[in-house]
Specification:
About 25% of the residues are buried. The termini are far apart. α3 crosses α5. With about 425 residues, the chain is of the alpha/beta class. The chain is built from 11 helices and 22 strands. The strands form 6 sheets. The protein has an 8-stranded parallel beta sheet. The chain has a 5-stranded mixed beta sheet with strand order 16-17-18-19-21. Helices cover about 25% and strands about 20% of the residues. Among the domains are: about 35 residues, no CATH class; about 100 residues, no CATH class. The C terminus is likely disordered. InterPro entries: LRR_dom_sf (IPR032675).
Length: about 425
């Protein structure tokens, strides 16, 4: 190795060694703003551990903590959150769950009750150590808040007054009393709202209109909210809308070409004509429902309507119960309609709740054999056709007499077939 190159490597090694020896003193020479910038690359827990002196503690207070989830799911984590309210007030993301699992009685931990608490949860938490949830209001820079299984009880107005919040998730909060009007009013920049299995969530979805220009994703499922889904039709940024198992109503036929322009995923409840699980009164109603959904799908090919189905109402004159169906010994009649797809070809079929299916009624013509996706179409078509067994030859539900004849014949055979979930 030439002498000059060797000498250069030795000098670089010596400099690195000197830097290591002086790293602490060099770090201490940084100003408060510079330290805050460095802390901005660390997780909340790491920032708390890095506060070694007064200057570092002051820097931590001004640090915009990065979007890294901090989950409060134990007493230790709660105490850490309490410390962060003054040490890291610019925390941007936090997730709060249960601190006690499902324990009850002396020694358990829970959050203090809010306004107008429910009697049942009051009794359950009677002998628990109660912790203050109000401290979360100190995080004024909060952008993401996740509340799940916290066992909050009553109203907590301060939880929904964050001017910079973009993402709010509330799930499995059975006793957290909340109205959509109050929620929307205190979160002016909210982009994503996720509420799932919150039996105390009430209100009309038209309250969300104050967030018309910011909302991009809305999921409100298994909640008691009401209204018309069309009240959100002119939201310019709305990409996902899921209102499964709510009291929301409407008619998908009302959607015009200028409605829901940014929508990519749509799931509507059974109270909407054409919604998920919609109940129709006659077998002859099915083609009209399918035609509506099919036309809508053709207008917006990229729109996802995953797992959509509709069913014949059990108070319909066309409905009948299979013999011994109550004892789960025989498949019910195929009273459910669902879309199927092979390649780009769309159709629908009648099914039972045990995955016994009728023949497909195709809505699209078969693709050309020379087309690019024909091989994929044939493969998927073969799989679909193999799923037909009990109701082969039927393109709609058999009459009750036909149904009984089918099952009388099958009960005399040892090869009874019940499709499994893997079929």
């Amino acid at each position: 190795m030439p002498h000059s190159k060797k000498q250069k490597l030795l000098e670089e090694a010596a400099a690195a060694s000197t830097d290591d020896d002086n790293s602490t003193s060099s770090f201490e020479r940084l100003g408060t703003d510079e330290l805050a910038n460095v802390f901005g690359f660390l997780r909340p827990e790491d920032i708390m551990r890095a506060r070694l002196n007064k200057k570092m503690r002051e820097a931590a207070k001004t640090t915009i903590v990065p979007m890294t989830e901090f989950e409060v799911d134990s007493v230790d984590k709660y105490n850490a959150m309490a410390a962060m309210t003054t040490a890291l007030p610019n925390l941007q993301q936090i997730s709060i769950g249960s601190m006690l699992g499902f324990g009850v009685g002396y020694g358990c931990h829970a959050f203090r009750h809010g306004e107008d608490p429910g009697a049942e949860m009051l009794s359950i938490n009677e002998n628990c150590y109660l912790h203050d949830m109000n401290i979360i209001s100190n995080f004024r820079k909060l952008r993401c808040l996740d509340l799940g299984c916290t066992r909050l009880n009553g109203r907590y107005p301060f939880l929904f007054n964050f001017p910079l919040l973009h993402n709010l998730r509330i799930h499995y909060e059975y006793d957290l009393k909340l109205d959509l009007e109050f929620l929307a009013g205190g979160l002016p920049l909210l982009k994503e709202l996720y509420c799932h299995k919150n039996r105390s969530l009430t209100g009309n979805i038209n309250c969300l209109r104050v967030l018309k220009d910011t909302l991009t994703k809305v999921t409100i499922s298994i909640c008691c909210v009401k209204g018309s889904f069309m009240d959100l039709a002119d939201f310019p940024c709305l990409e996902e809308l899921n209102l499964t198992r709510t009291l929301v109503t409407g008619d998908i036929r009302e959607i015009g070409k200028r409605d829901f322009l940014a929508l990519e995923t749509l799931t509507l409840p059974s109270g909407v004509y054409g919604g998920m699980g919609y109940k129709f009164q006659r077998i002859s109603d099915a083609p009209g429902i399918i035609s509506t959904l099919y036309s809508f799908k053709k207008q917006r090919p990229s729109l996802l309507m995953e797992d959509w189905f509709a069913m014949l109402s059990d108070d319909s004159s066309d409905w009948y119960e299979g013999v011994d169906a109550a004892n789960d010994e025989r498949s019910t009649a195929p009273n459910i309609i669902a879309f199927v797809q092979a390649g780009s070809r769309i159709g629908y079929r009648w099914e039972t709740d045990r995955r016994a299916v009728c023949e497909v009624i195709w809505l699209d013509p078969e693709p050309d054999q020379e087309s690019r996706g024909y091989v994929k179409y044939i493969e998927e078509l073969r799989t679909i056709e193999q799923q037909v067994d009990i109701y082969r030859g039927f393109h709609q539900p058999p009459t009750e007499d036909e149904y009984n004849l089918i099952w009388e014949a099958r009960e005399g055979c040892e090869c009874d077939y019940y499709p499994s979930d893997s079929d």
